[in-house]
Structures are given as C-alpha cells and as structure tokens.
Design brief:
Blueprint lengths: L9 H14 L5 H14 L14 H10 L14 H15 L4 H17 L8 E5 L2 H14 L4 E2 L6 E2 L5 E2 L3 H19 L3 E13 L3 E5 L8 E9 L8 E4 L5 E5 L4 E5 L6 E3 L7 E11 L8 H7 L18 E3 L2 E3 L14 E4 L6 E3 L5 E4 L6 E4 L1
Parallel strand pairs: 9-15
Antiparallel strand pairs: 1-10, 2-4, 3-6, 4-5, 5-12, 6-11, 6-14, 7-10, 7-12, 8-9, 8-11, 13-14, 16-17, 17-18
Helix pairs in contact: 4-5, 5-8
Keywords: Membrane, Transmembrane, Transmembrane helix
Protein name: Prolyl 4-hydroxylase alpha subunit domain-containing protein
Organism: Nitzschia inconspicua
C-alpha cells in the first residue's frame, strides 16, 4: 500500500540541493535548469513524487551504459508473456507523457515493476488468513479506538472528499509484525526483516486508492490485513496485477490477508468505497539476505534510458497520468482500464494456505519457510 515513511529533514534537503547545484555546473544552462527543476520537485515525501539522489544527468547516463542497459529492455522480470504484454503497454504510455515530472516518476515506477525489482513468488500475490486470536484483538482495538480516532494527513494517492482516520496502537502493530512474519516467510520462501506495520487507517465514505507500488528498499514482501468495516460498508476490492498480466480484484473478509510483492506489483483500490469506514493494517518486510546492501532506488534510476524525456505519441493505449507515486487512466471507469476485465476473488481466506491466480491453492509450511504441494 502507500509508502509510509516521513520525508527527510529540511536541513538534509538543503544540503543535498546545494551539493546538487554545484555538481550540475558541467551541464548546459538549459539542461541544468531542467534537471534541477526535476530534482527539487522530486525531493519531497514519498507520499508525493519520488525523491532523486544527487547526481548529474551525465553521470546517470554513464552508469546506464556501464551497467549494460538497453531500451527497449530485452526481457522483463519475470519473463512471462502476460507480464511482457502489460509492461510493454505501460512503457508506451509513459513515453507519451508530456509533463517532465510525471514522465520521470512514470519511468521509475515502471522500471521497478518491470525490470529492476526481482520477483519472489509465482504470481506476486495470494489470499490467506491471519491467526484468529490476533484478528480478535485488533478488531477490539479498532472499535475501542473509534471515538478518539484522529484525522490522518493528506496522502496524494488517496482520492475522495474525506481524509482517512487513524487509530494508533503501536503495541498491536508490533505484535502483528511478529505474528505475520512466519506466514510471509513461508510464502516467499526466505527469511525476512520487519520494516513497518502501519495502521490502523480507516478509509471513509467515497474514498479511493489509486494504483501504485511501494518502497523498493523496505516494502518488498507485504500483506494487507483487513480488520473491520462499518455495518453500512459495501465490499471494496483490492486490485492487483499478477505476473500473468491479469488484474485481480480481491474482496477481503475480516481477518483475511492479501500477500503481495508490494514494490513490484501495482496495486490499489481504484473503485469508490461506500460506507462509514473501512480499516486495514499494512505490514511490510524486506529480504534478510543481501537486500539492504544495494540501493534499489538507484538501480531503477540508472536503468532509465538517455532518451527518457522524448515524447513518443501513443495511439494504441489509454492516456496515463502519474500523480506522485500513483498512476491513473482517467478515460476509463474508476481511472483504471484493466479493471473492466479483472478476475474476482472473495474471502474468507484459509489460515495456512494461499489462494492465487487461476484458483491455485497452496499449503504453507509454517514451521519451515516454503510452499509445499498444490492442493
């Protein structure tokens, strides 16, 4: 889900900007102006545009060549027919963008999804269920906390007239990290390091959550944990793209968890929510082995082709808009065209098993990390 980290301090931001200005002196005046404009616009919270490190465009292009990148990319990760079809479409849409900031952000998100972030599971998502005792305690905390719920700050990937409410229970979010960790380790087949469990967020009437991916450095193997909703709430599906190129729409019941590779698979709730409130917990991990030794954000930056700013007309696919860390297709219902052909999945999930694309169901081996026989 949306990436829940605070922006860097103003003093750090100013130091980066001064360093960047000094280093851009080798560029032409026009290049310096355009690149600095993009950098300053991007140096904000991750709930806005994606931040840009301090390098010059010449340095970035040199690294592009050094790493052997080529565009169009010779293959995607994973290299399946459906994923290729989906990513080819998105690159076409991004190339047609005329706004420089939208275009830069679109390149980063699409490259992360298509190429630089590896996949760890067959389809990138699955439906399961959390331990019942944990769900019971979290539900009680939500109902107890409703009268004093605070209003959350503005988040530009959330649409609607009402900002979400928020209930702070760090004791329970920490517990959720610990109790859900074995499930996500079994699903992904590797040891994980907890990053954050963010919640409880209560979406309110007429909210929507636009399609996006999460932080590549820390939000890699994740789950959306549905806890409760008001009695007047309509079903509100999570929409996610899988590695076959399908768009899945999963309706969760209280206690269900949607497992997903959140830095790679575009996901959101683009349909409009109707009801008083709907609450979830967002739980994020990253791989223990070697992941933090690399800068995965930079990997995506360096893979952007030197011709990234060129505008290539798109006459085949719907027009794309990039808003901060999210994407929309405003010409289609709910601003996401593939939603019309989405495949629907409904909870409740089953503890210890994962339901995924094409109805495949797997049993998790929770005492040892890994998925065993298909059911």
């Amino acid at each position: 889900m949306p990436q829940h980290q605070h922006s860097t301090s103003r003093s750090n931001s100013r130091r980066r900007q001064r360093r960047f200005v000094a280093r851009t002196s080798v560029l032409s005046p026009l290049s310096t102006f355009l690149f600095l404009l993009l950098f300053l616009a991007a140096d904000v919270s991750v709930q806005g545009s994606l931040r840009r490190p301090a390098y010059t465009e010449d340095e970035r292009q040199a690294e592009y060549i050094k790493r052997g990148h080529k565009f169009p990319f010779p293959h995607y990760v994973p290299d399946t027919e459906g994923w290729k079809r989906l990513m080819d479409q998105r690159f076409t849409q991004v190339q047609a963008l005329t706004d420089a900031q939208m275009k830069w952000d679109g390149w980063i998100q699409t490259i992360s999804s298509a190429v630089t972030v590896p996949n760890f599971t067959e389809y990138g998502w699955g439906l399961s269920q959390a331990p019942q005792s944990l769900t019971d305690d979290l539900r009680q905390a939500v109902f107890d906390g409703l009268p004093a719920a605070r209003e959350e700050g503005e988040i530009n990937v959330i649409g609607g007239p009402n900002r979400p409410l928020f209930i702070d229970r760090p004791d329970l979010t920490h517990r959720a990290l610990q109790e859900l960790k074995p499930i996500l380790e079994a699903w992904s087949g590797m040891e994980l390091i907890p990053s954050i469990a963010y919640g409880f967020r209560l979406y309110r009437n007429e909210s929507s959550l636009w399609m996006h991916i999460d932080r590549t450095q820390t939000h890699v193997i994740s789950c959306i944990y549905h806890i409760a909703s008001s009695d007047d709430s309509d079903p509100w599906p999570i929409v996610i793209e899988d590695y076959d190129g399908n768009t899945q729409a999963a309706v969760l019941q209280p206690g269900d968890i949607l497992l997903y590779e959140s830095a790679k698979n575009f996901h959101g709730r683009p349909t409009v929510f109707y009801g008083s409130w709907y609450t979830s917990l967002f739980v994020h991990f990253f791989p223990k082995e070697g992941w933090s030794r690399e800068n995965h954000d930079l990997d995506s930056h360096y893979a952007i082709p030197p011709t990234w700013a060129d505008v290539v007309p798109n006459v085949t696919f719907p027009k794309l808009e990039v808003v901060g860390t999210s994407m929309r297709e405003p010409a289609c219902p709910f601003s996401w065209c593939n939603l019309q052909a989405s495949k629907h999945v409904e909870g409740p999930g089953e503890y210890g098993t994962v339901l995924t694309t094409n109805g495949k169901k797997y049993r998790l081996k929770l005492e040892k990390k890994g998925v065993i026989d298909e059911l």
